[in-house]
Automatic annotation (TrEMBL):
GO term, biological process aspect, one: methylation
Species this protein is from: Brevundimonas halotolerans
Residues of the full protein shown: 400 to 719 of 719
UniProtKB keywords: Iron, Methyltransferase, Oxidoreductase, Transferase
Protein name according to UniProt: Dimethylhistidine N-methyltransferase
Superkingdom in the source lineage: Bacteria
């Protein structure tokens, strides 16, 4: 993956497989079959997501990178002197470098990620590239934040790029922003990356690219279930579908059954009628107004809002 953090589980392998199995059984039992997007990101899914970020149709990563580069001096000023930068779901810390390159006054960088492998590798690389920066990694799930170590006297800034907030339900997004606020403390700052509402054809193209990489990314979920859980999904009988849900202001990815069929997982049989879908991901698109509404429910206020060129994404600077 690029730097975009995913709400992915990296538990010990057996726990993770057991959780995948339980989630899939539960998800296939619902009237609208659905599964958490975190299961899209096994090694193969993470590799495919990285390919997605380089597709001509997938604008979010490119646009956010350009905007961060543009805004880096303002961000440095926003963070202040001797600042502590806390990144939630830091992954490979790739986008962070754009900020670090132009923030000489930053004292401490605290990457938080659920994958200790990714965290260790990123910590080594950042320490090597920025020898004067104190790097203090924290292993943890950003949806279930551990207490953060007391570090430095400077102001704290949270960093959550990649529009990952859009993959969370409103309830979870408020929960995350509230707990991040608690952990960072009163008076802290936050940099939030979001994707914006735009014409449906652009959105659909970004999630249903001509080369079929997003389709492969989505279908890999079924291949993963076959590999890890010994399920018997027939990959030729499911199709990728990306739809713009205007009512809920979100892109949705589904896997559509192209025939009546039965899928077996352990001893349980799950029926799909022709045209029935498994909902695998929602990616919410915002406006300045819907972001203000969301962050205020979590105790933050918007102090700056910057949009990229078209197709536009935005960075919201928060304080609270
Ligand atoms: C990186 C999780 C925000 O929702 O746009 C890309 C994931 N899914 N193409 C997004 C994704 C399909 C991406 N996030």
């Amino acid at each position: 993956r690029d730097a975009d953090p995913q709400p992915g589980a990296r538990m010990p392998v057996d726990d993770e497989t057991a959780q995948f199995r339980a989630d899939l059984v539960e998800g296939l039992s619902k009237p609208q079959k659905a599964l958490s997007p975190k299961w899209l990101y096994d090694a193969e899914g993470s590799r495919l997501f990285e390919d997605i970020t380089r597709l001509p149709e997938y604008y979010p990563t490119r646009q956010e990178t350009a905007l961060l580069r543009d805004m880096a001096p303002d961000i440095a000023r926003f963070m202040g002197e001797n600042a502590v930068l806390v990144e939630f779901g830091s992954g490979a810390s790739e986008k962070t470098r754009i900020v670090l390159d132009q923030a000489p006054d930053l004292a401490i960088y605290m990457p938080i990620d659920i994958s200790t492998d990714a965290l260790d590798a990123a910590t080594d690389r950042i320490r090597e590239a920025y020898p004067d920066l104190e790097v203090s990694p924290v292993a943890g799930d950003f949806l279930d934040l551990p207490p953060l170590p007391e570090l430095g006297k400077g102001p704290r800034t949270g960093f959550f790029p990649g529009s990952t907030i859009g993959n969370l339900t409103t309830e979870l997004a408020i929960h995350f922003l509230t707990s991040a606020h608690e952990r960072l403390g009163a008076g802290s700052h936050f940099i939030l990356g979001v994707d914006l509402v735009k014409p449906a054809d652009l959105l659909v193209a970004a999630y249903d690219d001509a080369q079929g990489v997003t389709a492969a990314f989505n279908l890999n979920l079924l291949a993963r279930a076959n590999r890890e859980l010994d399920a018997d999904f027939d990959l030729d009988s499911f199709e990728h579908r990306a739809v713009w849900n205007a009512d809920r202001s979100r892109m949705e990815m589904h896997l559509v059954s192209t025939r009546n069929q039965v899928v077996t997982l352990d001893d349980t049989r799950f029926r799909f009628v022709e045209g029935e879908t498994l909902h695998t991901e929602s990616s919410r698109k915002f406006t300045r107004e819907t972001i203000v509404e969301l962050v205020e429910k979590a105790g933050w206020r918007l102090v700056d809002w910057r949009e990229s060129n078209s197709p536009a994404v935005a960075l919201a600077l928060l304080q609270g």
